Amino acid sequence: MAEVTMAKALNNGLRKSMEDDPKVLIMGEDVGKLGGVFRITDGLQKDFGEDRVIDTPLAESGIIGTAVGLAIRGYRPVCEIQFDGFVFPGFDQIVSQVAKMHTRSAGHVRMPITIRIPFGGGIGAVEHHSESPESYFAHAPGLKIVSCSNPSDAYWMIQQSIASDDPVIFFEPKRRYWAKGEIADAPDPLHISRVVRTGADVTVATYGPLVTTALEAARVAADEGHDIEVIDLRTLSPFDMPTVLDSVRKTGRLIVVHEAWRNVSISSELAARVQEKAFYSLEAPVLRVTGYDTQYPPSRLEEEWLPNVDRILDAVDRTLSY
Amino acid sequence: MAEVTMAKALNNGLRKSMEDDPKVLIMGEDVGKLGGVFRITDGLQKDFGEDRVIDTPLAESGIIGTAVGLAIRGYRPVCEIQFDGFVFPGFDQIVSQVAKMHTRSAGHVRMPITIRIPFGGGIGAVEHHSESPESYFAHAPGLKIVSCSNPSDAYWMIQQSIASDDPVIFFEPKRRYWAKGEIADAPDPLHISRVVRTGADVTVATYGPLVTTALEAARVAADEGHDIEVIDLRTLSPFDMPTVLDSVRKTGRLIVVHEAWRNVSISSELAARVQEKAFYSLEAPVLRVTGYDTQYPPSRLEEEWLPNVDRILDAVDRTLSY
Amino acid sequence: MTEHVHAVHPEPDMIQLLTPEGLRVEHPDYPLEITDDEIAALYRDLVLVRRIDTEAIALQRQGELGLWASLLGQEAAQIGSGRALRAHDMAFPSYREHGVAWCRGVDPLTLLGLFRGTNLGGFSPYEHNFNTYTIVIGAQTLHATGYAMGVMRDGAVGTGDPDRDTAVLVYFGDGASSQGDVNEAFVWSAACNAPVVFFCQNNQWAISEPVTTQSRVPLYRRSAGFGFPGIRVDGNDVLATLAVTRKALDDARSAQGPTLIEAFTYRMNPHTTSDDPTRYQLADDLETWKLKDPIARVKAYLTRQASTPSGFFDDVERESQKLAEHIRAGCRALPNPTPESIFDAVYEEMPAELREQRDEFVAFVESIEEATV
Amino acid sequence: MTEHVHAVHPEPDMIQLLTPEGLRVEHPDYPLEITDDEIAALYRDLVLVRRIDTEAIALQRQGELGLWASLLGQEAAQIGSGRALRAHDMAFPSYREHGVAWCRGVDPLTLLGLFRGTNLGGFSPYEHNFNTYTIVIGAQTLHATGYAMGVMRDGAVGTGDPDRDTAVLVYFGDGASSQGDVNEAFVWSAACNAPVVFFCQNNQWAISEPVTTQSRVPLYRRSAGFGFPGIRVDGNDVLATLAVTRKALDDARSAQGPTLIEAFTYRMNPHTTSDDPTRYQLADDLETWKLKDPIARVKAYLTRQASTPSGFFDDVERESQKLAEHIRAGCRALPNPTPESIFDAVYEEMPAELREQRDEFVAFVESIEEATV
Ligand SMILES: Cc1ncc(C[n+]2csc(CCOP(=O)(O)OP(=O)(O)O)c2C)c(N)n1
Ligand SMILES: Cc1ncc(C[n+]2csc(CCOP(=O)(O)OP(=O)(O)O)c2C)c(N)n1
Ligand SMILES: [Mg+2]
Ligand SMILES: [Mg+2]
């Protein structure tokens, strides 16, 4: 099968969901004629009409809040947040309404809302355009959080997220939008993690933009004689703990890698769980290679700030030194 | 010295700050004539006038956003958020403006804003009135997060927070507002944790409303022959790691206790750090006694849901069984 | 030196069809054809929802409810607007709309769970087309707008078919008008001409803050600048509220877009049972507003102007007694939730890790219970 | 069946003092006493800020900047309003207000850091009373309102002392008008009568969305319902913008409260250098708006109506050349930030744990550099 970019895979996935279910709507800023600033919704308004692909007024709380109402009415809204840093005006509607409505109504109301967020850095952008806010959302019960790292997952996971009767925040690694790959014939379940490289010495668990980076690091480490297992987490809430724990029980060593700030993050939680559930298997503490606990830097410094192959290799050395 | 309630201690602390510095303002919903729904600002508008104790329109983003502007103009705003669950409409202004303005302006602009949030459960309230949102904020660089557990700390820490040139989110354990205590003659530094009970067997680290609970558990455990050390964390961002690590190196066992949801929380971070920094000292995994990863339940079930003496004792047994 | 804003005129251009003295007046834009029997039915509603309120307050005092948000004084605003709804219209309440719930056919006991702490709402919005209460101020205005967008996409506006055309009615307070969400709901509904009616009960207070803290001009004027009409109605006049809401809902159903209604009324009780209004409210104001009581004027009309059958008032009183008993007995009988129910509806599909937490929780609670037994 | 809203009339009640053809017209409410020299000075501003823009776009194309948000077409809106400010007034820009920065005396190079990626703003708002750019749409309107509340508390409004009375001017776009924050800023400033002027540059687009996506009625009408006046000015007319803003700022300084100004203009370039407007914009519109160019009309006036000294236009052109060289050379010479600077201004007081992270980071970066050397 021909290779497609992640952007195209997402576009195809969205199209498929819209064809399959007339209740699926796309809404957001510039998602119509422009096709979104990353062109993920390219051509969809033309083909499905302005009623189903909606250019909204410029307000994120409004986008999410109206999606809640549409969901109550039986629709399946897919909201695009233009950039990671712009989701926060919609934070209240997400954590206090989207996340809670199902519980509040004792299960009578469903919130099959998908919130797409292009996230992460490495594209030379200005402030608020390179953030990784997934940890904020993973704290909230009622939400499910996933991230894709390749075109095939992008294609399948976006459809699964839209089909989910629970709300899903879907993090798209924007700097990998143009990377190409083949589309698998069938999907894995949405909420499983995947070992994308088997190895015996150290487990590296990551997701989204850094899966590629971790695989590169694993190749370099192999030259240095270290056999790295790489897990693409894919699902960040819930976690797929069996996959992670099996791997750690085998390697005895875990490094969690993400761009998000370290403090109170996805990697904190994984470290906390793994040290609890695999206490006797760990030969070294769980290490973390993450964004530093500073503001995302001006783009001239983002390469230094972001986790990269060198920083992962350094952590490999450190964990092996225990 | 006479004992005062935490509510009164906070009131006295706020009054002292206002007397000491004419740039200190109080702003929020119902903080004026009513003195706040918990009466923490009781009498302050009468004594300092409507220009310094401001009943604002009903919108949290507006409260925080105007505080940012006042801070730029050289003021020191103290914002009251009426209940924990109502801070989220102001989330964007907090994480994207309050937290970032200092970095954005390369240090030229200071954000000496204090955001007071009565938090936590146990008061038999309705939805959104019993939450513990501190973990969301601890993820964000640029913010400092503290919580008091007793009247003396309340009195001193609120003044220190207001005097801080960095923004501080000040979490007040609302169910302890009416507990009494003496006020110390002088404060500890704001960002230190405190061992409030020394013990040799297990360290229990907690903050805010559950310090009292942890001390109770320690007393019961003592009867059962277990010697518990209790740490009142006080500062949640930054952490005071030396205090925690010293204790864990001594006891070899740590239980982190908070009402907040477990997933991606304060306790995740403490567990992650401690297993890294005290790997060889730990005789058992760091355990966590927290709110469950569900919505805060209807009040008839909150006693079951909240961490309590039984749940802490159970964790003590579990950690000692390693 | 003149300010850009002048003092708020207390009651500008307010639509009134029944004076506080119980006299019917006509308004050219809001003709209301209504029989005396229908007015009597409204009277019954008013009395019964006030009774629900009285009983709930008593139950709170007895410790049966943790909290109650009283509707006293706002009965006409709620019954007038609630009775303007058709069955397939949808209502989005805030947390004080017990009277609207009544009009929708929601059993008052259904509302008590939230205040008793046995659930967080816990009912289906679909059963009576009445959404669960929303406590975060203003959030529901966006939900209503989104729902109305769904109605449009379902082709259920402007068809001329009364069984099909659907409107959405959303309630919020004067304080809520300051929230970003409410103003965004105005933006959205105007931009897409959504069939939604914004019903603002201006009860003069947001807890301790008078409405002048929110705005120095009348709230009904807010909408014009967003591109849709606003109107102020005497919120203590059930007839005017009915007429004005009916017209706005008709407009919405016939694809003419949103309307903002400001129902000018007064919160005659504390904000909730936890509040102490002596700190901020003048007793005088309460006295003035007592003269405008929403029920007294209907009774005056029925007594003096209409040929109300003898015995009607007694019947209503008997019904009110029965309702009170239903509430008192029913409240105490509300089932306590089981601990494991906390985990039930977090997700539609419960993740394995949460199931694990639930099982641990249930086992732990049981172990404690056993130990205590 | 009529909708509540009718189509937007394109240019209602717009204040204009200089026609596109360069003819001075009078407006009774906005008399403007201005000498030809002063108009020539405005012309110089307009030309120079357009030059800044042109150079920045070129620098972006050459890879020296990561991004640029062009002000092309909006020069008059920015210069007219910016020149209405007094030194001690405060301006809060969005991200496109390079022309306002110019009026405040900010060196254009200071603005480039953000777009080059060497800093996130990086300058002191106090130096020129011009705040750093705000990228989150609308957030700055609340900052401006809060700042204005501070001005009031400093006793710097309504004293009659021109060296003391202070106004605040905040910029935002037509798209931003939909954000909750902007509407909350309206609520706040109206409620406390703050000395703030809201300057909305309606450039007809929010990236690809026409202003009709946000509102079907003119934006200047938004404020009336909040309780303060709104006015639409020809944003391509530097004289009208100056006069209208001056009046609004004067009102603010003299304690008459806020004003909303909608400057009706057009974004003549893509949203930013990353945008592709061929996907959504009609070329025709651009042609129409070219005829209303903000600079051409001033030049026409100066050439035809005023006794502009010969050589003036050449002088401006020379100055523009020098400015271009300053920008080109200065941009390339902007210092790259050091890695450790990332940690410098996270806090005023750096916590020990962050210091530790910084030291590890610096050591690591150095070790990599050594390894690479
Ligand atoms: C976002 C948010 N902030 C604060 C509160 C606390 N609160 C509950 S009711 C209320 C006042 C609401 O006033 P209004 O909108 O006039 O409604 P009313 O209670 O008068 O019916 C406040 C501040 C809340 N529920 N939600
Ligand atoms: C909260 C937020 N959401 C989305 C964006 C992305 N964004 C940047 S500019 C823009 C359009 C702004 O339009 P307008 O307010 O009219 O200003 P203009 O760019 O036309 O000057 C958008 C959607 C943002 N910066 N902030
Ligand atoms: Mg009210
Ligand atoms: Mg625009």
Explain this structure.
The complex is a heterotetramer, with two copies of chain A (322 residues) and two copies of chain C (373 residues). Chain A is α/β, with parallel strands linked by helices. Chain A has helices at 6-20, 44-48, 60-72, 91-98, 101-104, 134-138, 151-163, 210-223, 241-251, 266-277, 302-305, 309-320, and strands at 4-5, 24-28, 53-55, 76-80, 114-119, 144-147, 168-173, 180-181, 194-197, 202-206, 228-232, 235-237, 254-261, 287-291. Chain A has a seven-stranded mixed β-sheet with strand order 3-2-4-5-7-6-12, with helices on both faces. In chain A, helix 7 (151-163) links the parallel strand 6 (144-147) and strand 7 (168-173). Chain C is of the alpha/beta class. Chain C has helices spanning 36-61, 75-82, 98-104, 108-116, 125-128, 139-153, 180-192, 211-214, 238-253, 283-290, 294-304, 312-333, 352-372, and strands spanning 90-92, 168-173, 196-202, 205-206, 209-210, 230-234, 259-264. In chain C, the strands form two sheets. Chain C has a five-stranded parallel β-sheet with strand order 1-2-3-7-6, sandwiched between helices. At the A-B interface, helix 4, helix 6 and helix 10 of A face helix 4, helix 6 and helix 10 of B. Bound molecules: thiamine diphosphate (2 copies) and magnesium ion (MG) (2 copies). The site of one magnesium ion (MG) has 6 residues of chain D, from strand 4.
What is the mean pLDDT of chain C? 95
Relative strand content of chain C = 5-15%
| Number of distinct helices of chain C | 13
Envelope shape of chain C? globular
**Which parts of chain C are unreliable, with pLDDT below 50 for 5 consecutive residues or more?**
6-10
Number of strands of chain A: 14
Q: Using only CA atoms, what is the Rg of chain C? A: 22 Å
Strand order of the largest sheet of chain A: 3-2-4-5-7-6-12
Number of strands of chain C: 7
- Strand and helix order of chain C: HHEHHHHEHEEEHEHEHHHH
Helices and strands of chain A, in N-to-C order? EHEHEHEHHEHEHEEEEHEEHEHEHH
The order of strands across the largest sheet of chain C is 1-2-3-7-6
